[in-house]
Amino acid sequence: MREFLRNLSFCFAAGAFGGLCYAIGLWAMGYHGFTRWVGVDIAPYLSNAYLYQRVVWGGICGLIFLLPWRRSWLTRGFFLSLVPAGVMLFLLLPMRGYGFGALALGALTPLVIVLACAAGGIAASGLLSAQGK
């Protein structure tokens, strides 16, 4: 039981770190004009509320790293990041009125979301790998 709680804590912390990387990555893509360049209307404002929400949800999504995937940390981070990206694209953003895949924000919105989630997933997986997990 103690080992499970330890792994749970590691995965939540790594997910929170990944959520921070996701938030900063998405903000940086908007701030430096990448999202505008690809025709996507996403440019979040960097604030405490913006970061807090993504760090907490990143921690919750980090629990997916409890799955027994022991291959390369890079591929683990990328492929497991597709789960929260899919939830955002096919559940959360359509519920906010942006349509299936959030295509109302631009045709390449799925690419931007997957890239930002991949940055967070790879960062979280790298942190877990550095911890020996």
Task: Present the secondary structure layout.
Layout: H1 2-31, H2 34-37, H3 48-61, H4 73-95, H5 109-130
Helix pairs in contact: 1-3, 1-5, 4-5
How is this structure best summarized?
The protein has 133 residues and is mainly α. The chain is 70% helix and 0% strand.
Task: Give an account of the 3D structure.
The mean pLDDT is 92. The relative contact order is 0.21. 70% of the residues lie in helices and 0% in strands. It contains 5 helices and no strands. It has helices spanning 2-31, 34-37, 48-61, 73-95, 109-130. It is an all-alpha fold and 133 residues long. It is elongated, with a radius of gyration of 15 Å. The protein has one domain.
Largest sheet: none
Written as H for each helix and E for each strand, in order along the chain, the element string is HHHHH
Structural class: mainly alpha
**Distance N to C terminus:** 17 Å
Helix content: 55-70%
Q: What's the pLDDT, averaged over the residues?
A: 92
Beta strands, count: 0
Radius of gyration computed on alpha carbons: 15 Å
| Low-pLDDT ranges | none
Keywords: Membrane, Transmembrane, Transmembrane helix
